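FAQ: What does the model actually see?

It sees only this:
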Amino acid sequence: MLGQKIEILRLHFIEEKGKKQIARELKISKNTVKSYINEFLENKKELIEDGVSKFELIENMTEAPKYNCKGRPTIVMTDEVKEIINKFLNENENKRTSGNIKLLMKATDMYEELLEMGFTLSYPSVAQYVQKYKTNVNSEEAFIKQIYEFAQVCEFDWGDVKLILGSQMIKFKMAVFTLAKSGFRHAYLYTNENTQSFVDSHIKFLKYIAGVPKTMVYDNMKVAVAQFVGRTEKEATIALKQLSVYYGFKYRFCNIASGDEKGHVERSVEFVRRKAFSACNTFDNLELAIGRLNSRLEKHNNIKTKYLNNTSPSELLEEEKKYLSPLMPEYVNCTNIYARVDKLSTISYLQNRYSLPDHLVGKIVDIKIFIDRVDIFFENNLIATHIRLHGNQQWSIDIMHFKKTLSRKPGALIGSLAYSQMNATLKNIYEKHFKLSPRNFIELLDIVGCHDIAAVNNTIKVLENKNITVTIDNIKMILNRKNELNNTALILTTSPMQEQIEEHSRRQLEQYDFVIAI
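And it is asked to produce this:
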């Protein structure tokens, strides 16, 4: 820095301050101070002994020290490391060309990946190598440092993240929370940035931290801001007002294009997205992607940093919990509608269809839509539950809902959507034992309805192991005898003839030459 060197020399030779004291006052390295002083002394000695130009000595007072770096070998930046970094840079280019620029790896991400691979090197080594190939330098946005108290502020924002599930690239919405004091971050993935996802993320996060911050901070997202009142005032959505009243937190909104008012979470969205998915954004299913997100969040929340006085966000969270407001019982997050069951024995919600028992065709049912499931009621009785569909024109069909119709039209089974979505165990039973007799398979569905699929499947395995033909009658007989045995066992707890009844039951079963193991 201009003038720094002369100031160091002045403090040392004129004010007679020590090297450590100078380093503390100027907030620089002690080695830097030592280097400047030694270099000056060497030049001064040469001036006195060998007649070196006074101009060179004076010029030396303001010039940075010169280091001989020529020919130094790169000890840690080996060809193997360079090859891995080049791979990261190539992946960045592929992401940039495919429009997935938010998952570009930075030098710090590459450095952390190399450490996890077992390499020993410094961050500057990686940063300098990456800088050589960096073509676009983006200016960084400035933020004003704020001072917070524990539990005072929690910031929320949405971020986009593109993931490849199987072979399909899907754009997800990531809800990110950051506690301003501790810097603790947490995030959730959703298929849509809608009110129900907004509410669900708050329910999960407040439950996760086991308390409620005093104030939640949002930008001008549609799920939080219903409308603008005047030039600067905003009115919150009904959903946000309800959450606020229920959990007892205040809320405020940032001004438009004022990142300094919510600097933590603006950076948190980008930080979480990079740390979780820049090195890996391809997964077999969503559950694995969520697992990756959670593990990375846990890792970085447990890193101690000098900015937090050598503590980690997770450690500070434990302290922050003492100041959080008490948590209310879990908020109910569902949409309630009514619908008529159509001729396909389904109801429709957001262009997706869910099946119901076929005797309800034409009836009005009560539907409660949760973030992850759909519960359907008729006359206050729960009659069907489906996993919530978030796509378009998708169907969720339970074959057990069509027993009545299939009993009249068994030939329609094999080509039906109900068959294609049928439980894998049931489908295997059909293929092995009932492919030539679909009507008997429809009867088996009644048995499954009375017992359960596991009991039926285990019964069939018993028959197979004894080389006995798998028929409806044989399945019924075993299951009925099992029920008789269970009922007998209940009686045995109070009957004085316990041993006689038990022996009689065993003899009955032995007549069929096997012991029930289901």
